[in-house]
Amino acid sequence: MSAASFPVAARQQHATRAVFFLPGFAIAAWAPLVPFAKARTGLDEGGLGLTLLCLGAGSLLAMPVAGALAARFGCRVVMLVTLLMAGLTLPLLAIAPSAISLALALFVFGAGIGACDCVMNLQAVMVERDARRPMMSGFHAFYSIGGAVGAAAMTGLLALGVAPWVGACLLLAAMAMVVLVAAPHWRDERAAGDAPMFAIPRGIVLLIGLLCFVAFLGEGVMLDWSAVFLNQVQGVPAGRAGLGFLVFSVAMTLTRLFGDRMVAWLGQQRAVLIGGAVAAAGLLLATFASVLPLALIGYALVGLGCANVVPVLFTLAGNQKAMPESLAIPAVTTLGYAGVLAGPALVGLVAHRSSLVVAFVLVAIALLLVGIAARAVR
């Protein structure tokens, strides 16, 4: 790459980090608003759970459409529109007066987040390809950083007594400033005029998508079941049971910040193989640990192992030749997100039939199989 083109490439790389930061920031800003929404709408726990499904439904339905639109109009336009959807809906989530209005707002919010999630990975594949070195883990790290900043910012504002809708508007303004700086450097390539807009995933893309499903399933299990497991199975007090997910999240974020160097050193297949093995070993350690410190080491190993698996799988999906990347990335993203949604439910079903220990062991085996199966991806 010539010296003259390097500043352009550097600006695109920073802009890509920004677009990964933004959806993580937005969805984490919503989390502290959930109790306020529950009280305002009068929903009980069951009703709130059903309403929250609208966020996931919006994401899953929007992802394939986003890939098609990105192929036709370019990543920049689609990311601008989807971030606008998510950003403008955030204040609505803070004022929605009824269950129906909250459900509709969550559907649009989820559609914006999910569609942006899909297209930003398309952008990342192109930027990484031009750089000719691994960059995907670093991009994904900024999603996690955005989540931490968004949750901290909204929580801090609420703790200061700021009204939820005012806090949402302030964070919307912060998002708008980031977009104004980053958007001019987002990619705007379009697919050829005769390129298909939709296709069912097949061959290597289907395999990568299934591996993403399992990897995201593992992350979803950490989010929804780690605290329950520590509390109900291992007897950790409820006030400390969240330490498992905290350790997992910190380990994953830190590993992704340095993950690109690891992937360059190990190679893609070996990085996924080792990552799956480390995550599986960590989950087994966390499952059978007799004391909390040992269990926390296990959760840290799960975060360390899972950190580079999904970024590498997205890179592989972008570089395969069986399907255009504008079709492959949405397919892999959709299957992965389905793992986040379905994983906790599957664990609950297995736990109901047998036990949480059995469910966690099965997840560990699945993570190990991801590492082994990834060697078949070329």
TrEMBL record:
InterPro entries per UniProt: MFS, MFS_dom, MFS_trans_sf, MFS_Transporter
Ranges where the Major facilitator superfamily (MFS) profile domain occurs: 204-378
PROSITE patterns cross-referenced by the UniProt entry: MFS
Domain of life: Bacteria
Keywords for this protein: Membrane, Transmembrane, Transmembrane helix
Major localisation: membrane
GO molecular function terms attached to this record: transmembrane transporter activity
Gene3D superfamilies named in the record: MFS general substrate transporter like domains
Signal peptide interval: none
Keyword Flavoprotein: no
Gene Ontology cellular component terms for the protein in this record: membrane
Localization per record: Membrane
Membrane topology according to the record: Multi-pass membrane protein
Transmembrane segments: 18-37, 49-70, 77-96, 102-120, 141-159, 165-186, 198-218, 238-259, 271-290, 296-316, 328-350, 356-377
Name of the protein described by the UniProt record: MFS transporter
